[in-house]
Amino acid sequence: MRYLITIFALIGISLLILLARSLSNSDLISNETFRLLLIFNVIFIFCLVFLIALQIFKLFRNIKKEIVGSRLTLRLVISFAVMIIVPVTVLYLVSFNFLTKSIDSWFNVKVESALEGGLSLGQKTLDILMKDIELKSKSIAYSIGNIDKELRKNQLIDLREKFSIAQAIVVDNKNNIIFISSEDIMNIPQLPENDDLLKAEQSFFGRIIDLDGSLYLKSLVPVRFNEDLSRKVFLELTQPIPIAISNLAVSVESVYEEYQQLAYSRTSLKIIYSLTLTLVLLLAILSSVALSFVISRRFSSPISQLAAATVEVSKGNFNKVIPDQGKNDELGMLVKSFNSMTEQLNTATLSSEKNRIRLEEATKFLDSVLTNLSSGVLVINKNLEIIQANKETYNILNFDSKKNAKNLNDLKVMNNDYSQIINFISKFINEGKYKKTISEDFKLRINDHEKIIRLQINTIKDSSVYIFSLLIDDITDVSEAQRHKAWAEVARRLAHEIKNPLTPIQLSAERLEQKLKDKLNTSDLDLLSRSTSTIVNQVESLKLMVNEFSEYSRPPKLLLEKININNFIKEILDLYESSRITIKYKRLNFEDLIKIDVNKIRQVFINLIENAIDALHSTKNPSLSISVQNRMEKIIFNFSDNGPGVPSEILNHIFEPYVTSKKKGTGLGLAIVYKIIEEHKGEIKIINEKKGGTTVQFYIPLNYE
Amino acid sequence: MSYLKKYKALLILTFFTFFLLNELIANQINLGNFNIEQSAEGYDFLLEQDLFLNDDILKAVQKGIAIRFNIDTKIWQKREFWFDKVIHKKTVFFEIKYRNLLKKYELKEINGNYKLFATLDDLKKYIEPIKIKLGKVNKVENVWINVQINLDTNRLPKPLQINFGEKSWDISSKNYSMEFEKIN
Lengths: 705, 184
Fold this sequence. Notes:
The structure holds two protein chains of two kinds. Chain A is an alpha+beta fold. In chain A, 57% of the residues lie in helices and 19% in strands. Chain A folds into five domains: 2-106 and 265-309, no CATH class; 129-262, PAS domain (Beta-Lactamase); 373-474, PAS domain (Beta-Lactamase); 481-553; 560-701, Histidine kinase-like ATPase, C-terminal domain (Heat Shock Protein 90), CATH 3.30.565. Chain A has 18 helices and 17 strands. Chain B has helices at residues 2-6, 8-26, 55-62, 120-126, 158-161; strands at residues 29-39, 42-51, 67-77, 85-99, 104-108, 114-117, 129-135, 143-151, 176-179.
């Protein structure tokens, strides 16, 4: 665009020069050329206007697009335009006024009067000279007409010489020369014109002729020869006007004509000069405004680049480099400083980015470790605000740090049982014994399940600020397993210690009854018999109990075999065909064989069915539904009855030995069931249904080996 | 465009008037009585012209502005399959000027001689018949001649030359064309 504007400016200057030259009366620039120039100038002005309009349109489009630097360019353009237009307009008005006044001043009344006076003077002089030659003509005509015929020629010569006439010719009406007398005898006489002769028939006829720039007076008068008055004869005198007078008169005439021509062209002159001046002004203003776009862009370009680069930097792009154009001015220094600054920022950002990536990787690793930890990790500050918590923490404590709790105290609202933990933590923090690591187990009820939570508090000092990491473990299963193990040990020892003396006790009681039954009277015998029977029955009971203890405490050893589970269940249910409760079985749509210890699982079924029968003894329409499902590589068994359910106080300990809701029971049935399922790598749980009844659910892995 | 219908008649009248005026201005010199004479020097083209000068021009002449009239004569050869070709061209002029000093109208004739007239009518009457010496013309068969007289504005003072929109000075005759052999 800048080249285009430069070309336009050059064309404009050329057109202006040509236009100015054409105003002079040079033959080089003709009328057509001037018109053409004028048309070219007008076209050029329109082109400039179009160019400027285009530039303005582009500028406003850039402003609308919020291109950096466009507003600055607009301001510069406006400033330049004002700087140009105001003085040029003032100059134009002054020049226009001056021009009009100057042209008017050319046509001063005094000048015109002087010129007219000069011309009139010249005319009067010529008139006087003409009058003079008229008198001379008439005098000579009279003299030669009234003198003797023979003396006429000499008289003519004498009088011509006397009156200092250049040439005297006497001709007849046919223009035939009768006499002639001339100063220059070599000069060919110029005869009067016939029209002139006619005009001079009655009296004098004179005229002035211009021969090669010299003025001559010519007078023609009729001559009456005294011998023949009817003969038409004419005398023509030719007298040059003195050169001094002639030149002066011609000069005055010339100036007068020039003046009159100018005066006649006065309006045209004003129009032309005003038009030229206006064109010059328009060309100057428009060219300057067009150039102001180029200059403004040149000024604003580095600032725009800087501004654009600053925007880029603010967006985080530190790779932005402004081309250094090698200028040593303030803008050049600014560009260099900016480039240096962005380079430093870029280096720092790259370094920071590397560190951030490392940190992110470390954080991800830590998160991964924390996420995959089976223990809950909770980081808090002194105010008990949660800084970080892993997924397992949420699972164990059943809360969401983002939604439910941001401070440990919030947990109190969720579950009052958390108070004991929070109080413990608060106490630890308030005591200020941060170097100490402490651990404590808590029994909590979460979602109707009793959990044993082990809490370990570790103190971390992070730049003079203490934060605390809480290691939270759900040790419910561990604790339960430990209890089961302890119970098994107890049962084993009890069985071992009790089982041995039972048979001798039973045998001794039976022998004692045998030995004494003949020696005792009826009443004593009856007493003995009842006592012996009691001993035997109690021993049997003890044996039964000991056997169950033995079963509970026996070492895990399974005899696995592949069976069809449907057939297996059907065989067991056949045993309860005559039972007082209705047992429904929903067959498993799964005919593959599964591997289980048949006797153990049979015992599980029998224990669970027996428990259900016991629980439903006072229930109307007692029923038990058994279903088996194959889901996610697990065979899931459900035993659902419509009984009163398990009392909630023993629900969490139902699988522990000696925990039972029955009046007659060892409390080992479900403990044994739990043990068998556990040996099959399965899990079991008892749920009190909200609509009533109890569901015992357990599963065994399908591919258990 | 309904408003145009309203002024339709006025627009047509304006256009027609403008056209007529233009025609009138363009026909301020009438030519006629064309004749060709053969002489020892070749051919002479004779014609008569009737010059009409409007008030503006008369005023300018009175102020001493010389007006020159060019007479352009061209002889064309007819060509059947192409544009006709100029085979002979002759341009002459006469100039009218008012001598303020002498209070007479000065005519510079076609042959270059000066002649003074007391009135412009005398001068106009004098220049009515025009004789243009064409000289030798190589071919007179199947040719045609055209003639036009116009005021030479290039000889006017510059301010008058570049007087835009001023039609007073556009004086010219029609472009008369005729068969060379048929002129008698």
